[in-house]
Design goal:
Keywords: Hydrolase. Helices cover 41% and strands 17% of the residues. The protein has twelve helices and eight strands. The chain has an eight-stranded mixed beta sheet with strand order 1-2-4-3-5-6-7-8, sandwiched between helices.
Length: 278
């Protein structure tokens, strides 16, 4: 698995946001979640770039973007930034594919910040309360203590946490791609800081408005997702008018790594169906 660099940056309220654009066709934006980065989407984005102009970006506090301790990284900030980036890029009505809490970011941008989409695909997303694993809740309550762990102990804890998101198991290369951004003097405290700032209030604020979404919406879920169980997919489908749903067998929360071929095929089918939308 090749580690691709995001070659462009934009500054927003003191934050440095790493991003990239490539391919040709209608705009397609991928949103990552936590504790991931755009690197998780890169192989699939590459595969779709022959038919779409693909945008990848790392949210502040994640991946190659800045991790300043003074800058909030909560879902409210990320949703506002996403809407700003689309304006900066000159992108109107993009196709959006969002994973994990990237789903909440896309939904907040749509419902609170005036965004509209050509289509929206929600992949194992954070959208409904309650959310957060027992480890997530433990860290949230004691983030300052965890931030002081010896580096080797910290890395072991993050590796164990990340492994739990995969149903099929992770290669050492994939594990390093996911864990490396959270190591070192900047990465370690950033890992615990983003968990400490996670709050269900950001999904509760918009959950009651999911029925207002009138764009085409497709929900994709790893059937074996241990982090956000698949019953959330059916609940979410019932709340969004005319939303469709597809499950990916033998895939957990890290569906991009557990079922890359099935996920790419499903995304291709969905996006091609709506590619002609203005």
């Amino acid at each position: 698995m090749t580690h691709h660099q995001l070659d462009r940056t934009v500054h927003w309220r003191g934050r440095q946001v790493a991003w990239d654009r490539f391919g040709d066709g209608p705009p397609l934006i991928f949103l990552h979640g936590t504790p991931w980065s755009s690197a998780l989407w890169r192989p699939i984005a590459d595969a779709l770039s022959s038919r779409f102009t693909v945008y990848l970006w790392d949210m502040p506090g994640y991946g190659a973007s800045s991790k300043d301790a003074d800058h909030p990284v909560d879902l409210g900030v990320q949703g506002e930034l996403f809407a700003h980036l689309c304006e900066l890029w000159g992108v109107r009505r993009p196709h959006v594919v969002a994973h994990d809490f990237g789903g909440a970011v896309a939904l907040r941008a749509r419902l609170l910040h005036g965004m509209t989409y050509a289509s929206l695909c929600l992949v194992d997303v954070v959208a409904l309360s309650p959310w957060g694993s027992p480890f997530f809740q433990l860290v949230k309550e004691h983030a300052e203590v965890f931030a002081q762990l010896p580096p080797a102990v910290h890395r072991g804890a993050v590796e164990a946490y990340v492994r739990g998101a995969s149903f099929r198991g992770l290669s050492e290369e994939a594990l390093d791609m996911l864990v490396h951004p959270w190591t070192g003097p900047d990465g370690q405290p950033a890992f615990y800081r983003q968990i400490a700032q996670a709050d269900e209030v950001y999904t509760d604020e918009v959950e009651g408005r999911y029925g207002d979404i009138d764009e085409p919406v497709h929900i994709i879920w790893g059937v074996q997702d241990a982090w956000i169980p698949a019953d959330r997919a059916t609940r979410l489908q019932a709340m969004i008018p005319n939303a469709s749903l597809a499950g990916v067998a033998d895939a957990g929360h890290l569906i991009q790594l557990d079922g890359p071929e099935a996920l790419t095929a499903e995304l291709s089918r969905w996006l091609e169906q709506h590619r002609a939308h203005p």
